[in-house]
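The records we work with from here on pair a chain with its fold. Taken together, the tokens spell out the fold as the letters spell out the chain. The record below shows the convention in full.
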Amino acid sequence: MDLTGMLFVLLSWHQATQATYWGHAGIFANTSAIPLSDVTMTVTQVSLRTCLFQCTYNPNCLIVSYEASTLTCLGYQRTDMMRFFKPEDPDLKPPKEHISLYFNYDLAISLGFTTNLETGNSYKISDVRMTHSEAENECQRLNAGILKIHLQSQIHEINAIVSTDAVLVNENGLHVSGKGNMGYFVYDTGESVPHNLWAMGEPFMSFTEMCVVVGSTGLRVVDCNLQLFVICSLL
């Protein structure tokens, strides 16, 4: 779940005996790029609360976007929609002009992801080691994406998880998003990996195929064919 740098708002309510937690992830960056086949629920003239409630009980609805100005609610069957959204800056324009993305954190738990409701991150570390290419496919199989690291706080959060696991604590890093490209390292979205996240002495460009892993001291470079555990992220 990559919610780096985003405004995180926790919404909760009770309907009968069910409690549902929703995170406010961001606003639309490019609505026209979203395939129509990914829209599985369309409801108009409804409140945000009703929008989220209807998605909760629709098995084909994993996340929703809500346009306050038109009271329009759209549900999607995929969670890896973050590339269509951007972090929200409340000072840019009035909230009613936003089309915002909301994500169900109860869903993340049911899929086996560890969710931190304070940071908005939902992680799942694989049970088996694999190459970087296999890692990307595994995350897609989980209806997620390989984790993109944008902030030092994410590294600290991952270290806290790894430090309590007797197997992971001795690993040579965990596969995350990032590959070498003409001397630069970029995420699958084309963004450059931030320079301040590299461990000392990195990136060490000594492999034919270079991929990014995260370790206790920051990001490092390994051979893409090295078999390691992977961190998948919802959103």
Q: What stands out?
A: The two ends are 5 Å apart (CA to CA). The chain has two domains: 10-110, 121-233. Helices lie at 48-56, 105-110, 132-141, 152-162. Residues 1-19, 87-92 have pLDDT under 50 and may be disordered.
